Amino acid sequence: MPAGDNAPVALVCAMPMELTPLAKRLGLRKDTVAGVPMRTGDLDGRPVVALATGMGTELATASTERLLDAVTPAHLVVFGITGAVDDDIEIGALVRPEVVIFSETGAEHRPVPLGDDPVHGTMWTTNVMTPAAELPALVERGVVSLDMETAAIAASCERRGVPWSVVRAISDRATDDTIDDEVFRLAHQDGRPNPRAIARFAGRHPLKLLRLAAMGAGARRATIAAAEAAIAGARTLPR
C-alpha cells in the first residue's frame, strides 16, 4: 500500500484483546500485506490497516518496523489499555498524553493531537513492573499512566517520517498491587493467555482470582473505550 492521496491509516495496539473490538466495529478482515499478517478494511471509505504488535518495546519495535516496510500510512494511531499511576483516574478513562517518555533512555516523543481533543500529562513506557515506591516521583514529573509499547512505536514512526498519535484507556491502577510479575506472566508476550501459568496461579492464589476477574472486567471496558476513541480520532485525520 503506497503513500499518496489514498494512503491508509494504521491502527496499532499491543494485544489481540485490544484489537478485537476495533476490528469488529470496523469490520476488518484478516489479511497479509507484503508478507505481514494484519487486519485490513476501511473507515468512511479510507483504507485502514490494523496490527497487534505483542507486549514490550522489543516486539513493538519489530512489529512496527515490519508494518512500515509493508505499508506507508498517512498516519499511525496507537491505542489500547494503560495503567494509571494514582487512584484518582477512573477505569476506562481516556489518556491522550502530551508527551511519551521511554523510561530506559529518557527519550521524549510528542504525539500529534487527534482533532480537538486536549492532550495532557506524560505517558511512561517501561518494560518492567514499576514498584509502588517509585510512583510518587513519576507523579511529580507529570506522569499519568504506564505502558509498554508507545515510545517504541513512536520512535519507529519518527525514523520513517510517519505522523503518529496515541489514545489509550485506563484498565488498572499501579497503586492497587494487583499486577506483579507473576500476574504479568499469565499472558504470553504476544498477548495470548498462558494456560499453564493461569492454572499454577489459580492453585497458589485462589483468593486472588476474584480480584483478577474484576481487573479483567476493567480491561474489557478499557479496550472498548480505547477502540472507540481510536476510531473517532482517525475520523478527524486530514485526507
Low-confidence stretches: none
The total beta strand count reads: 11
The secondary structure category is alpha/beta
Number of domains: 1
Terminus-to-terminus distance: 16 Å
> What portion of residues belong to β-strands?
25-35%
CATH class: Alpha Beta
Largest sheet, described in full? 11 strands, mixed
Large-scale geometry: globular
**CATH architecture term:** 3-Layer(aba) Sandwich
N-to-C series of helices and strands: EHEEEHEEEEEHEHEHHH
Radius of gyration computed on alpha carbons: 17 Å
Helix coverage percent of residues? 25-40%
What is the CATH homologous superfamily assignment? Nucleoside phosphorylase domain
CATH fold-level name: Rossmann fold
Mean pLDDT: 87
Please count the helical segments.
7
3D structure, described in words:
By secondary structure, this protein is an alpha/beta fold. The protein has a single domain (9-235), classed as Nucleoside phosphorylase domain (Rossmann fold, 3-Layer(aba) Sandwich). 35% of the residues lie in helices and 26% in strands. It contains 7 helices and 11 strands. The chain has helices spanning 16-26, 57-70, 135-140, 150-160, 181-184, 195-204, 209-235, and strands spanning 9-13, 29-33, 36-43, 46-52, 75-84, 94-95, 99-102, 108-109, 122-125, 143-147, 164-173. Strands 1, 2, 3, 4, 5, 6, 7, 8, 9, 10 and 11 form an 11-stranded mixed sheet that branches. Strand 7 (99-102) and strand 8 (108-109) form a beta hairpin. The longest helix is centred in the C-terminal third of the chain and has 27 residues, at 209-235.
